[in-house]
């Protein structure tokens, strides 16, 4: 699996059952949820070995999951994308709705707000969706002059009086 795991990330590890010479399962408690998810995502790398990983659930949840297996199988055969999460069947979004094309990119943007005067002027035929979308923000170039006050920008007023070389040569 090649997942680096520090000693502090394993809270507890113990074998289940009595030592009868048979292979016994090991329950490992991980301290961080992110590490647990990472391990469970990479469990497919153990295919072809005699090692397997699965999440440990309480007995009542295991019983409920067994009962839901038949319903889950029927839902999948009907063409729906469903999975078991804890003790419930969850329907996933279709793959077409997950893909975000550039044309659909701004579909979730907020509409620009309307002042009360404009709301009165708005005709009943125009729907809220026809209002313009908010303009995308642009990154402002941050220069030193944008942080200075206007009085600090006008450096010519404070500078020492300069002498024009041409004036000195004429005298």
How would you explain this protein's 3D organization?
The protein has a two-stranded antiparallel sheet with strand order 1-2. It has a two-stranded antiparallel sheet with strand order 3-4. Strand 3 and strand 4 form a beta hairpin. 0% of the residues are buried. It is an alpha+beta fold. Helices cover 28% and strands 11% of the residues. This is Endonuclease-reverse transcriptase.
Intertermini distance: 88 Å
Mean pLDDT across residues: 75
How many H/I helices?
6
- The structural class is alpha+beta
Tell me the quaternary state. single chain
| Spatial strand order of the main sheet | 1-2
Name the helicity range: 25-40%
Identify the notable features of this structure and list them briefly:
flat, alpha+beta, 6 helices, single chain, 28% helix, two-stranded antiparallel sheet, 171 residues
Topology:
Elements: E1 10-15, E2 26-30, H1 33-41, H2 59-77, E3 82-85, E4 88-91, H3 95-98, H4 116-121, H5 150-153, H6 165-170
Short description:
This protein is of the alpha+beta class and 171 residues long.
């Amino acid at each position: 699996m090649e997942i680096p795991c520090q000693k502090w990330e394993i809270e507890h590890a113990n074998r289940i059952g009595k030592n009868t010479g048979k292979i016994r399962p090991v329950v490992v408690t991980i301290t961080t949820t992110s590490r647990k998810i990472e391990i469970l995502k990479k469990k497919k790398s153990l295919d072809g070995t005699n090692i397997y990983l699965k999440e440990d659930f309480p007995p009542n949840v295991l019983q409920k999951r067994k009962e839901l297996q038949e319903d889950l199988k029927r839902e999948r055969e009907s063409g729906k994308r469903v999975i078991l999460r804890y003790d419930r069947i969850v329907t996933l979004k279709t793959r077409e709705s997950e893909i975000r094309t550039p044309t659909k990119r701004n579909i979730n943007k907020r509409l620009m707000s309307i002042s009360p005067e404009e709301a009165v002027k708005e005709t009943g035929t125009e729907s809220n969706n026809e209002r313009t979308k908010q303009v995308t923000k642009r990154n402002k170039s941050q220069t030193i002059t944008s942080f200075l006050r206007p009085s600090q920008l006008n450096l010519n007023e404070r500078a020492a009086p300069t002498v024009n070389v041409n004036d000195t040569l004429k005298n």
